[in-house]
Amino acid sequence: MPSSPSAPADVTVHRxxxxxxxxxxxxLLEAMALLEPPPGSWEDVDTGExxxxxxSVSEPEAHALxxxxxxxxxxxxxxxxxxVVEALAxxxxxxxxxxxxxxxxxxxxxxxxxxxxxxxxxxxxLVVAIEPGMSFGTGLHxxxxxxxxxxxxxxxxxxxxxxxVDMGCGSxxxxxxxxxxxxxxxxxxxxxxxxxxxxRENAALNGLDIPFAVGDALDPVLPAGDIVVANILAxxxxxxxxxxxxxxxxxxxxxxxxxGILDNQYAAVxxxxxxxxxxxxxxxxxxxxxxxLFTH
Length: 296
Prior knowledge:
Elements: E1 13-20, H1 25-31, E2 40-44, E3 49-56, H2 59-77, E4 83-88, H3 94-98, E5 104-105, E6 110-114, E7 126-130, H4 142-156, E8 163-167, H5 173-180, E9 185-190, H6 193-205, E10 212-214, E11 227-231, H7 234-239, H8 241-247, E12 255-259, H9 263-274, E13 279-286, E14 289-295
Parallel strand pairs: 6-7, 8-9, 8-11, 9-10, 11-12
Antiparallel strand pairs: 1-3, 1-4, 2-3, 5-6, 12-14, 13-14
């Protein structure tokens, strides 16, 4: 999934840029609001040119983001849109990212706070402080929010001794939210070493010591947990179905949360996990993204 444009100075950033009519900016940005990060816009008042832009450190992710931007724009105005991906000279993107990320109430209990904003929590609120760096997971995206909602539901059902595994941890936001919700044992994994670094830093920002390690969801054997959360992408979830299904324990209260799935992809993902002996217990649709809760 696309990542935030907050990169260290020695990291190459890939920009997905689409030229648009200035009059269409608001409608297109609103339609793309569920992309992460939400694309920003630039308008040259002298030339009358306008662009919508989004950033990623991963070139494949940038191309995937460009494709979604073009598809969404065409759905909005019926016109073909070309989105160009180019590598930009390494530089500090922190300030450009901050304008898109603010305090967010994900549930009635969980609040996500970027480290550059102050927030006084109300009684009972759990604040997750995040510096996303170049990692996916700010709380802005529908899939992240759905996972947190499922985790809160599971936590409120009791059994906080259940072990939680965050597969594809990104910024560490889901693992941190799980600990804040009361789960005592939480581990996070991602194939990208930079995500592991950012996740550890975010855990420390929240006063938590959470084990994070490099691990790929496509490995044949995955770390086991009573609750496994995989907020990745539908093609990866389809390929990883056998291993992810085996990673979920059979103890009472076990669960598998799957996210990163467009609504029109969900039926295929659901069928793949049913073939592994799992049953869908619930799903959440936020915008165009559907996430599912499964058990054996």
